[in-house]
Design a protein that fits this description.
Length: 492
């Protein structure tokens, strides 16, 4: 399919050893597409769009599954997605544009621009520390536990940033901590320095020059493009089904543009933004960002093993090969929690965008795995296993996976008579099970503390833990897929 991004992408000589893999396990892009189609058909995802460029040629563009399953709307290429954390590189780019303009310097204290940061506790924080998630502001999720209310409850961005600045702090820890607070402050900073709203700055300085005609910072069900927006689904562990948690009939979650996750965009629009970064700041023959700025932003800062063994963090970008030489990394990109992902491969001039609105902890990790088995993308193999571990780490932090202490209590054999048995094992931060019938799977934990199966092929759906008077686990009470109950006694 002959199509282009509308601009020239710099070609880079690829290392033959990274491109040529063992022929026995090489898969084609068509096979990758077929696998995604099977995921959609089996409800492992509700829908997804795949877009791949090599140089300036589009080599894959296909949609799978549903845009809005409840009304029978099939997903089509060009749909608009809520990309959540993929908003962050856009905010980082806005700050870097102001830096290139000379309107600010990355090592300036934030207090030079925001009065709420002109306090003894916050005066030392620099813009660079915000960009690299080393400000010490904390708040790894959308609502810092120390804020009096969640991000979406504030009337505007300025009020939110004032609340972040007002959080009592005895000291600042400048070690890496992935933080939505940092991005919120950066967004407000852009507005204060530029003299226009953050939304206006992004529209005039990023969307318009890059031709991102289907990208938006505000949504309402009455928007003329609302019918292109994909509904968001989340996998429910107990039912093993994706249920809709947001649709275009709903209002926007926050009453303002949320810098850490408020962007609505298409895969093609985001590919234009990503390709500008891939092309060292150039777009349509113009230098959009300074080449030196791009290379600086794509260098890992400080700790090398931030998320897992295969990635680190630059200036609001994820760097997937933190041990690469100075200059452009071999892989960089960003993902969003609803299931979106954009990856650039500077050595080969390739872009891969996988856009889904199916929240489950294996969605992106599974795509990494399949992409790593696809011809021309074997260099990403080194990160997908770490991404899976990272997904489980996020689940543990959210209380969805048993912690190691509970897991070690549970490990062992359980039986119900002579012919029914279950064995629980703890491996690689994962509680797994195998039954006498050969069923295998992983366990999550429900808010009530029950065990929920993480693979939807298993006949077991839920286990509750039964303890003796001295606190030891001696039985598991279960529910089958068909609703039947059973009880397993510890047998070791």
């Amino acid at each position: 399919m002959a199509s282009t991004l509308g601009h020239c992408v710099v070609a880079r000589e690829a290392r033959a050893s990274e491109i040529e893999a063992a022929k026995s396990d090489v898969r084609s892009i068509e096979e990758l597409e077929n696998r995604i189609a099977r995921w959609a058909a089996s409800d492992e995802i509700v829908g997804a769009e795949l877009l791949i460029f090599e140089g300036d040629q589009m080599i894959a563009s296909r949609a799978f599954g549903w845009q809005n399953r409840e009304v029978g709307a099939k997903l089509e290429v060009g749909a608009i997605y809520r990309v959540n954390a993929m908003t962050k590189p856009v905010i980082g780019t806005a700050v870097l544009l102001l830096s290139d303009d000379g309107s600010l310097h990355l090592d300036d204290p934030v207090s030079s621009y925001l009065k709420s940061f002109d306090t003894e506790a916050l005066r030392s924080i620099t813009i660079r520390q915000l960009l690299s998630n080393r400000s010490g502001l904390g708040g790894s999720t959308g609502s810092d536990s120390r804020l009096p209310k969640g991000f979406n409850a504030y009337p505007d961005l300025a009020t939110l940033v004032e609340a972040i600045a007002a959080i009592p702090r005895d000291s600042l820890d400048h070690r890496f901590q992935y933080s939505n607070n940092n991005t919120a402050v950066l967004g407000h900073l852009v507005a204060q320095v530029s003299g226009i709203s953050l939304e206006q700055f992004i529209a005039h300085r990023i969307f318009e020059p890059l031709g991102m005609i289907d990208s938006h910072t505000r949504f309402s069900p009455q928007a003329p493009w609302a019918d292109k927006v994909v509904s968001t689904y989340a996998l429910q562990p107990e039912s093993c089904k994706h249920e809709r948690v947001w649709s275009p009939a709903d209002v926007q979650s926050a009453p303002y543009f949320r810098p850490s996750g408020g962007l609505y965009t298409t895969a093609h629009d985001y590919s234009r933004f990503l390709s500008m970064w891939l092309n060292e700041g150039r777009f349509d023959g113009q230098q959009f960002l300074k080449e030196a700025t791009v290379k600086e932003a794509l260098q890992p800062i400080g700790d090398r093993l931030i998320y897992n063994e295969g990635s680190a963090f630059g200036l609001h970008w994820t760097i997937y090969d933190p041990n690469s030489a100075q200059g452009m990394p071999s892989i960089f990109g960003q993902g969003g929690s609803n299931g979106t992902l954009a990856i650039a491969f500077p050595r080969t001039g390739k872009l891969v965008l996988y856009f889904s609105q199916s929240r489950n902890i294996y969605n992106r990790a599974r795509f990494y795995q399949e992409l790593g088995e696809t011809e021309g993308f074997h260099e990403i193999r080194s990160i997908w296993a770490g991404e899976i571990r990272d997904a489980w780490r996020e689940a543990i932090e959210a209380g969805r996976v048993p912690d190691e202490k509970l897991a070690m209590e549970l490990v062992g054999n359980y039986s119900m008579g002579q012919h029914s048995s279950l064995r629980l094992e703890w491996r690689d931060d994962t509680l797994t099970f195998v039954t006498h019938r050969g069923d295998k799977g992983r366990f999550f934990t429900s808010p009530e503390g029950d065990l929920l199966t993480g693979n939807c092929e298993a006949s077991i759906r839920r286990l509750s833990i039964e303890r003796s008077d001295d606190g030891k686990i001696f039985a598991l009470n279960g529910k089958m897929e068909n609703g039947a109950s059973f009880r397993l006694l510890r047998s070791d």
